Amino acid sequence: MREIKVNLSERSYRIIVGEGILGNLPDFIGSPSRVLLITDTTLYAFYGKTLESVLRERFPVENFLLPPGEKGKNIKWALGILRKAILSSFDRYSLFLCLGGGSVGDTGGFASSIYMRGVRCIQVPTTLLAMVDSSIGGKTAVDFYGKNIVGTFYQPSLVISDTATLKTLPERNYLNGFAEVVKYGIIKEPAILTVLRENREEILQKGKILESLIFQCAQIKAEVIEEDEKEKGLRMILNFGHTIGHALEANSKFALWHGEAVSLGIVASAYISQAMGMIKKEVLSELEDLLSLYSLPTRYERFSSSRLKEFLQRDKKVKMGKLRFVLMKNLGEVEIRDDVPESLLEESLEYLKKDGRNRRAF
Ligand code: GLY
Q1: CA 140 to ligand 1 center in whole angstroms
Q2: How far is Cα 109 from Cα 154, in angstroms, rounded to an integer?
Q3: Which are the contacts of 335, defined by CB distance < 8 A and separation ≥ 6?
Q4: Which of 112, 197, 328, 352 registers the highest number of CB atoms within 10 A of its CB?
């Protein structure tokens, strides 16, 4: 078991990563007046039911089940959670416990941030993507007329990542998380890319190495959050590959999953970086090889560039009409730029449509 402290004065919290730690959860959560276990219908059957009975030995517990996937990340479900809390007389000393992937964490985290002006929230991520990224840092949101349009910055009071829960994760969902892992290698720690390259078999079999990999990614995220909690500057580096990624994800109506869209966004951003003379061409192809090694898409053609540009204009990083991109200066170093020519943006989108390996067809 490993532990990271996220230092944010009175909003500080711990991230605990370990195998088989879910059963010890009641020891970590203090003494809430009530617990609302928020999870999805699939995870409830896998882990939620057992966890609920373990919690019930010590606390009054209610559950709220979301539909699996992006469908649950909707304002109507967030309102459902609030309604359940009100009807079950949850007070300000209660705890919302989010067991699941990014959608459960985002919706449950959002509901916790606005219920009675904020109740304690514990994130228990069960997907690789949520363990390395979305459960940490306090970004909560639901989709409303667009992805992540309504949300808050609200730090959890604890994050518990039990790597054993990854064992039941379907392959596509597991692989989806590696785009964020690759991202950390690009923005801060190139050694992560080497680990991914050299230990593919063990990683795909969810071996021991996974714990240290997740720990390393969580540590990078924690350091960034400590310096820039509300994304005034540095935190934007965590969005490497996400500007184009989010637009592709939304345009596909979520047929492309978040990590898959980010993988394509990484390719397009690396393409722009090499075209602007910031990195060598070989770096782009090395990254494509690595993403392909984890079966992440590096080519995709089911979009029109003009439609995608409309989505890009709605990106939250747009400032005074100017799109801001996180670009690569080197492996392990990125820079925020708002001077990407529109023609180069279009060229990078065309590049995604070119022949190449790992073309995603849907
Ligand atoms: N997923 C990017 C962030 O938390 O800032």
Answers
A1: 10
A2: 7
A3: 278, 326, 327, 328, 329
A4: 112
Highest mean pLDDT among 94-98, 337-341, 354-358: 94-98
Give ranges for CATH 1.20.1090.10 in the chain.
Answer: 173-205+228-353
pTM of the full structure: 0.95
The CA distance from 200 to 345, in Å, is 32
Report the topology of domain 2-168: Rossmann fold (3.40.50)
Catalytic residue among 183, 188, 242, 324: 242
Active site residue 360: no
Contact 265, 308 (CB under 8 A): no
The residue type found at 138 is: G
Ligand 1 center from residue 225 Cα (angstroms): 9
Question: Where in the sequence of the chain do the CATH 3.40.50.1970 domains occur?
Answer: 2-168
Amino acid, res. 336: I
Identify the pLDDT of residue 254: 87
The SS3 assignment for 69 reads coil
Extract the runs of DSSP E, i.e. beta strands, from 238-352: 299-300, 325-330, 333-337
How would CATH label the architecture of 173-205+228-353?
Up-down Bundle (1.20)
Which pLDDT tens digit goes with each residue over 24-51? 999 999 999 999 999 999 999 999 999 9
Q: What is the pLDDT of residues 134-151, one digit of tens each?
A: 999 999 999 888 778 899
Active site annotation includes 74: no
CA 245, distance to chain mean position in Å, is: 12
Catalytic residue among 231, 249, 260, 288: 231
354 is a catalytic site residue: no
